[in-house]
Amino acid sequence: MKNVIVTGGGSGIGRAICQRLAEDGNHVVILDLDESAGTETVGLIKEAGGSAECLACDVSSTESVQEVFAGILKIDALVNCAGIASIGKAADTTPEEMDRIYGVNVKGIYHCIHFAIPKMIQGGGGAIVNMASMAAKVGIQERFAYSMSKGAAVSMTLSVARDYLAEGIRANCICPARIHTPFVDGYLEKNYPEEERAGMFQKLSEYQPIGRMGKPSEVAELAAFLCSDKAAFITGSAYDIDGGATLLR
Ligand code: NAP
């Protein structure tokens, strides 16, 4: 049984990835800030006959990630899915907001890669999948800090893919457009009165030429494939999963 680590596995895309990886027969180790949400994911996996555990971890903290990874003996694959959003143009983005997004979305990926790679090498190789975004490739309005962080997710992926070829480590990333997760519902709830939410949901759906948002399970399918040996010839790639939003708009 392979040991796969998934950050942000307590919610949305990360949860769907954990469930899909468990269906493939992997043991899934969920790292999440919110231990109760991660434990809920573990419950769903076990109910379906899979194997999983949850460890509380703040990916933005070097000490937290170091401590958690010290207790994990074998790492076959790592999916860096934990991430936070930020809305604003460069001139509205405060230095504090820039640091907050950098801490989770950039340093969080760095921390997990940094502590996972030696264990992957010990085990003879592995697969890394980083959750980027179409914001890394396309200028999206008012997403200055977020786009910075997702661009870094893509370039860290390329750097690792290049540097650890000889050690049998593959690194790829995924660039989704809008995916319908609790994050999207929370955004609508926070920013729009109830009577406007359905219209806004429709507008966000139509942004993707295919006419809807993606499903977490669709991203999970791609992530599980990239973690698996079926993707043995794939490294250094950034996959669009976007209903045509990157190239067809
Ligand atoms: P989500 O539902 O908000 O899930 C994110 C998860 O990451 C949550 O469980 C969250 O825990 C956890 N997390 C946040 N900060 C953390 C930290 N410091 N340490 C450990 N865990 C932390 O988000 P999602 O929509 O599934 O997004 C998942 C990833 O996909 C993100 O990287 C996001 O940028 C990317 N993405 C999403 C979309 C989209 O449309 N949804 C599109 C492109 C890319 P808490 O709930 O406790 O904060």
Strand order of the largest sheet: 3-2-1-4-5-6-7
CATH architecture: 3-Layer(aba) Sandwich
Query: Helical element count?
Result: 8
List low-pLDDT spans.
Answer: none
Report the order of strands and helices: EHEHEHEHEHEHHHE
CATH fold title: Rossmann fold
Q: Estimate nothing, just give the exact number of structural domains.
A: 1
β-strand percent reads 15-25%
**Strand tally, please?**
7
What does the model show?
The chain is α/β, with parallel strands linked by helices and 249 residues long. The chain has one domain: Rossmann fold (3-Layer(aba) Sandwich), CATH 3.40.50.720. It has 8 helices and 7 strands. Helix 1 crosses helix 8 and helix 3 runs parallel beside helix 4. The structure holds NADP nicotinamide-adenine-dinucleotide phosphate. NADP nicotinamide-adenine-dinucleotide phosphate is lined by residues 7-8, 10-14, 32-34, 37, 57-60, 81-84, 104, 108, 131, 133, 176, 178-179, 181-184.
Keyword list:
Rossmann fold; binds NADP nicotinamide-adenine-dinucleotide phosphate; 249 residues
List the helices and strands and how they pair.
Elements: E1 3-7, H1 12-23, E2 27-32, H2 35-47, E3 51-56, H3 62-70, E4 77-80, H4 95-122, E5 126-131, H5 144-163, E6 169-176, H6 182-191, H7 194-206, H8 216-227, E7 238-241
Parallel strand pairs: 1-2, 1-4, 2-3, 4-5, 5-6, 6-7
Helix pairs in contact: 1-2, 1-8, 3-4, 4-5
This protein binds NADP nicotinamide-adenine-dinucleotide phosphate.
